[in-house]
Amino acid sequence: MALAETVLRKVYKLGLLPKLFLILPRVSFLLALASVAWLLMLPMDGQFRNTYISENALMPGQVTSYFRESEWNYVRGFRSEVVNWNFSEMSTDNELLTNWLQDFGWSVSKHRDPKTNTTTTYAIMHAPRGDNTEAMVLVVPYFTSEGMPNKGGLTLGPALANYFAKMSIWSKNLILVFPHNGHSVLRSWVEAYHTTLDATAGSIDAALVVEYPSDSDAFGHLEINYEGLNGQLPNLDLINTVTTVASHEGIRVSVQGMSPDDIDKRDYWSRLQVFASGILRLATAGISSKSPGCESFSGWQIQAITISAAGEKGHDVTQFGRIIDSSFRSVNNLLEKFHQSFFFYLLMSPRHFVSIGTYLPAAVLVAVSFAISSLYSLASGVTTPEFITHISDVLFIFTGIEAVCLLLSLLMQTIVVNATEGYTTTITIVYGLVISTLVTVLSTLAGNNIKILSKTHSYMLLAFALFFIAMLIVSMLIVHFALAFSIGICALPLTFIQPLINMCNAGNGSLIKHKLRIAMCLLISSPITVVVALGYLINDGGMFGIANFSHGLFVSWDAMQSWTYFIIALGWYPAWSAIAVACIFGDFRIESVKQKAD
Amino acid sequence: MSLTRVLVAGAAVRFLIPTFLPHIVDILAGTAEVSTPIDSFRSLQEAFFYLDNGIDLYDGAMVHHPPIFVSLMKSAGDLAPAYAYIIYNALFTLVDLGTAYKITKLNTWYNQHQSLRLGRSVEGLSPHLLAAFYLFNPLIVLTNWAHSSAIFTYFMIVELLVQALVDHNMFRGAIALGVAAYLSFVPIYLIVPYLALVYAVSKPRDWRVLILKCFCVFFFAVTLLVLVSFALTALPDFVIQCYWLVLSFQKFAPNLGLWWYIFTEMFDFFNPLYKGIFNLYNCVFVAPIALRFFESAKDKKTGDSFLAFYLCLLWVSFSKSYPIVGDLGLAVSMLPIFSQTVIPHTKFLFISTLTLIVCLLLSPIFYYCWIVLGNGNSNFFYSMSLIMGVVYIILFLDIIWGRLVMDYIETNEPKDPAKLRLTQI
Amino acid sequence: MKLNIPWLLWAIISSVYALEAAEAISPEKQLSTSGHTNNWAVLVSTSRFWFNYRHMANTLSLYRTVKRLGVPDSQIILMMADDIACNPRNAFPGTIFNNMDQAIDLYGDDIEVDYRGYEVTVENFVRLLTDRWDENQPRSKRLLTDENSNVFIYLTGHGGNEFLKFQDAEEIGAYDLADTFQQMHEKKRYKEIFFMIDTCQANTMYLRIYSPNILCVGSSRLDESSYSHHSDMDVGVAVIDRFTYYTLEFLEKIDKNSQTTIDKLFEEYTFENVHSHPGIRTDLYGRDPATVRLTDFFGNVQEVTVRDKNELLLSTVKSTRMQEGQLPVDDHEILRIPISNKGYESTALHQVSKKESQIIMAVLVAFLGLIWAVSKE
């Protein structure tokens, strides 16, 4: 306290406050720049760490897997059946598969999902000598995330079931799940497993989702997907385990869809690419319908990853089976859930990562940048007594905006979820939203006639909206870094508005140019613009991509319980709207500022 | 008129929302920030079940509410068992309205009192603002929705001040303090600043009459309550479950306090030391604060026994074993009473408000990370407990410093108080 | 470095001795005798869980060896979690191997675990060594040594600088261990101790010992890990630690009547073998290791002198014991605790019915109200 007192005295003595006030916008912008620079620095040598197995009990790759020679014949036998299947028909009712599994001694059950109207077959093998309280899950979706029939996967599924049943080393139960896809169908199974299903096998420690679309014996390398919903990630030990096991088999591993040529590159750019792609994928997890499956397990303390076979030649199908077998044996060695290692990390490559302490400052800097801008707005046109008397009005206005957003978001979500033609409805809604955004942005240019809000109210509304974004970022710092940071960066132009308004007031430069700039800032920081742009750019989108992405966003809560939609609709959008309202209806008169300065 | 409107609005928020969304009570009663084992509505309902089934209240160490409180609440619920939850909603609403109304009275009294002492008119905030500060304080609203029994303690604390100051009836005040101490133990430490306050405000300062009698009334009130409790349960268990539990930190439930973590993460053999020190910490500053801000009869410009009581309340809620957000909420809601005396001289209110907002945002999220998602750990949540402690300390020091600055200004009458910069040496 | 000097010195001395031995016609001359009359072994694996398979295998290997060399089960105290053989993860249920060739099933023999599961605690270990038990402790679980006992103590598990973890829950420090040995010495509970420890930073564990006649060997020095020797790819875990592996390899060549001296064992402990720097501490030990037979500790070969029994002395002992009432308690006297099968029973002095409670409450409220009304200064 005494130190704070001393600092305060110094600040008063030197008259720092007015000086500080003038450079606040620059400080805010510099902090935002520093935040991006911080992240750009992380893939440099020496800033990241090598992954390591933290849990002694795992011992990956220390055991011989006998999923070879004789099992190969089983694999070929099953495949000769599987290639003839009609996958879309078989996925709901597969008598043959059920019989196979029952023959191997697994107890087969079914789960009917009323939402998607599909039936998921799953089989449980109770560990003969285990204590029957924990389980591992192997998921073989009928269709991969790319929509291809998972032929190799459905071959390996029964072959491994047969092989696992012959072993007596299991301390955890095994569950095999065959959902139609890894998206909402699997999600509904996971939810049902923890709530309504009768045939269960204890708490699930880990889950592997397997994608092997080709029907050939050979594959090139292993791809790992690991992003979960709402910023959750599987324990890093699970990824390490699979990576280690694969390297023991001599198989190369890629993350974030690195092409096989890039896997062995160890340079800054390849690391940055993986890193950036990781943030983007984590921020948009649960939205794309090309869900890799592992995200369906989020929220139940289950560590899940998806492994897919990619490439044409190099390794054979039993090696893929051996990776699954050996990884399961490792998890089987665990005494309890994964608890060592990291839950918050970002990968640079399968073997390099940064942990939360290293990358968190980036988001903190963005949050502080918004907070400082908010302070600047406040200091630009509001005095303390004004602040106290008007704060309740501003809260009331903002709550009103928030309430409208809540109603609209619920309405749009309900319409899209219940629409028979989901995509058409989505496109209509997106058109509506884009037009409304454009109208809003254009009306800031229109003129100064409509002044509904008083001067104090306008400044405070702007300040409060910026503060709201800062708090939004702060609250998501740890739980969902990727989304917090992305929103922070996308909404950053909102912090330029107050300095631009002040420039207008001061009469520097032409008024219309400043107005155009304010309009531009509003346009590019709008969540609607960002969603449309993202849909257009990622997952080889185009116009169809926009529809896909927006549709995914609207149904993501209903299908996957992803919060992203509500964070955007109730966090980012109201703040943006409040600033837009302040810009359109607000009164930022120049005289008052000048008088104050005098 | 305006005050009535505020009261009606506050009542609507408290009564309508839990009536139409009954789940909210249950969810909040299970939230670590607004409900602890000693004041949780869940354990009160558990107690009702025990009463219905003839089980000893304190068997199984699940109930930590005092027996008279349980019986009274049960009787209230039994008036219309099918609508019990509405009765409780109404009851908690009424109690909170009472507290808010009494705070406005305290505000009026305090400003009059200060005007007399300082010899100039001190204009406080208007009553409806004071009521609004209490009724729309989110911390208090949450505590009320959670139906935490602390709401009754808050009422009793405010009531005892009103009795002693506004109604000039310090014996009733002592009884009210006894009831507050009976309800949640920790207010027992407030007897010290209470006696100082009573002594300071009464016209003829006769310590034998005031202090001794007052203390005796307090003592007999507590004794009576304890004896009746014993008669009700026929077992001394309630002393252990309601009061010893508070002293001995037996329930390791995570809360916003500073101490639970120490007991869960440290070696057991340190526990007796910690228990001793934390309890000492809880009460040891009460007397010094009461003395330092005592209103001396001769020097009318300095000292503020009411503030001393307030500071003790703040300190005791900061260092108690099972704090909830409502404890800070009560303190924050009473802060505007000092709007013309201390607050103009405080410097860190803005910072402590921001810190509090961040803490309140993050603590449920970290709790969720730790308990539900399993990707965080107890350190996450405890860090927020620490931040909460920081908020308390900043507030506490800020108020003390503010009052000292004011004392300086009143006694030395500098020419331009606005430019005055005092510092500690 | 300190550790290394005695070791080096000792290496020089032993090589000199070896030269002399080669020259000498009868090496027996150089053998010294300890004069002990009985041999004991305390074998402890302080870790638990499947991935610590090798510690259990280490301990059981030593158990097998001392038993093979003649120490009876009644004189071996075996402490280990014993959660490996019947672990569901064990691909060969009921077995523990110390080599990937799976030639010897260490668990297959008749083994007697004295302290198992959660009984492997620091407290039990210290109580065992110092023999401080209540009277109910069975004799089979006690270390009944006297001043003529040679004790071999073997510890393995996870250690650090001057501590050894016991089952993830607690740890014993080097000072605790040293004090324990001192107490054993004061209570005349040993003639000589051979203390062997195979953990990370093992040498730090014997640094603080200050009691006489203790020979110490550790597997690695400060800030050094001890390593496992090899894994069995079918069991899926490492099966034995390097230090113990080479100890055993040497001991396998020894039989009951062997005259091999203990320095020959020490010669096995090279960095090339163990991959860490084993330490040997001889300063407390009265004899020169080069003259000490391995069987002084690992075998059960003693010189026994039979004298005439002093009947008079025996009878006095008996009579004093009778007077002190230390006769065994009558076995038939079993305490029976009654178990109630009634339902819930309240412990309250009296039961307050709902009506009564309401009456009490009403009286209380009325009374309080009265006081409230009356109390008007």
Automatic annotation (TrEMBL), chain A:
Q: Which UniProt keywords apply?
A: Membrane, Transmembrane, Transmembrane helix
GO CC terms in record = GPI-anchor transamidase complex
Q: Where are the transmembrane segments?
A: 20-41, 359-382, 394-416, 428-447, 459-479, 485-504, 516-538, 563-586
Q: Name one Pfam family in it.
A: Gaa1
Q: Organism's domain of life?
A: Eukaryota
Picking any one GO biological process from the record gives: attachment of GPI anchor to protein
Put simply, this protein is called: Uncharacterized protein
TrEMBL record, chain B:
- Transmembrane portions of the chain: 82-101, 122-140, 173-197, 209-235, 242-262, 274-294, 306-325, 348-373, 380-401
Query: Which top-level group of life is the source organism from?
Result: Eukaryota
Family membership: Belongs to the PIGU family.
Q: What is this protein called?
A: GPI transamidase component GAB1
Q: Report the subcellular localization.
A: Endoplasmic reticulum membrane
- Could you name the Gene Ontology cellular component terms for this entry? GPI-anchor transamidase complex
Assign the protein's first listed, main location to one coarse class.
endoplasmic reticulum
Q: Which source organism?
A: Australozyma saopauloensis
InterPro entries hit by this protein: PIG-U
Named in its record, the pathway it takes part in is: Glycolipid biosynthesis; glycosylphosphatidylinositol-anchor biosynthesis
Do the record's keywords include Amino-acid biosynthesis?
A: no
Which keywords does UniProt give here? Endoplasmic reticulum, GPI-anchor biosynthesis, Membrane, Transmembrane, Transmembrane helix
One of its GO biological process terms is: GPI anchor biosynthetic process
UniProt xrefs under Pfam families:
PIG-U (PF06728)
Q: Which residues form a coiled coil?
A: none
Membrane topology term reads: Multi-pass membrane protein
From TrEMBL, chain C:
Q: Where is the signal peptide?
A: 1-18
Q: Which residues form the active site?
A: H158, C200 (nucleophile)
Q: In which pathway does it act?
A: Glycolipid biosynthesis; glycosylphosphatidylinositol-anchor biosynthesis
Q: Does the keyword Membrane apply?
A: yes
Please, which domain of life does this record's source organism belong to? Eukaryota
User: What keywords does the record list, in alphabetical order?
Assistant: GPI-anchor biosynthesis, Membrane, Signal, Transmembrane, Transmembrane helix
Q: Listed GO cellular component terms?
A: GPI-anchor transamidase complex
Which InterPro entries does UniProt cross-reference here? GPI_transamidase (IPR028361), Peptidase_C13 (IPR001096)
| Stretches that traverse the bilayer | 359-375
Biological processes, Gene Ontology terms: attachment of GPI anchor to protein; GPI anchor biosynthetic process; proteolysis
Task: Name a GO molecular-function annotation.
Answer: GPI-anchor transamidase activity
> PANTHER family, alphabetically?
GPI-ANCHOR TRANSAMIDASE (PTHR48067:SF1)
Could you say which protein family the record assigns here? Belongs to the peptidase C13 family.
Q: What is this protein called?
A: GPI-anchor transamidase
Species: Australozyma saopauloensis
